Amino acid sequence: MKKLLLSFGAVVLLAAGAQAQTSYGLKAGVNLGKYSNVSTELDDYQKNNVSFYVTGFADIPVAPQFSIQPGVSLQGKGAKYEASGDNGSGSMTQNVMSIEVPVNAVYYIPAGAGNVFLGAGPYVGFNISGKQKWDGSFGGVEASSGDRKMEFSGDDKDMNLIDAGVNFLGGYKFNNGFLINAGYNLGLSNLNPGDGEKSSNRVLSFGVGFQF
């Protein structure tokens, strides 16, 4: 974690020294979230959890057609499980909200009325809220419905507080600043607070934005 934070600092300092015009942008869209290494009993029932993201960022040119983009992002993640048949008929949804600090390296390729862009970079996230909601009979449990708040600290926490990984992004930036973008969030840190298998975020995203 220390190495990751030091890398963040080095990238930001490099970008700050660039003699170029910084621009700013805002992106928002849809997240489709899942978890890696889900237990065999649940993996067959795991579906994409639909949520949202909002990201503010700075675009700092450091070379022709190449920029560093630090930002702050509110990310909705989690997963959904649906069962039917012998195991009952029901669903469980886990929604987690996280604040992330990404630092992406982005390359622009002139094309038509704008630029295609491709990028990647690390992120550190902090899980700030979460809720589990279930309805019906699931996994042999008697039919019921309800919800509960998730905990990210203490001996009985449901998930680790800190998430870290790598972002991949691509899209098209029009000359007027309008953005069409997609991305993939590859979590590398273990979210599981127990002794079970390591579990990490896997999030596919689609959205639009504007760069000023």
UniProtKB/TrEMBL annotation:
Which residue ranges does the record assign to the Outer membrane protein beta-barrel domain? 19-191
**Pfam families, alphabetically?**
OMP_b-brl_2 (PF13568)
Signal sequence interval, chain numbering: 1-20
Q: Does the keyword Signal apply?
A: yes
Q: Which UniProt keywords apply?
A: Signal
Q: What is this protein called?
A: Outer membrane beta-barrel protein
Native species of this protein?
Answer: Sphingobacterium zhuxiongii
The major lineage groups are: Bacteria, Pseudomonadati, Bacteroidota, Sphingobacteriia, Sphingobacteriales
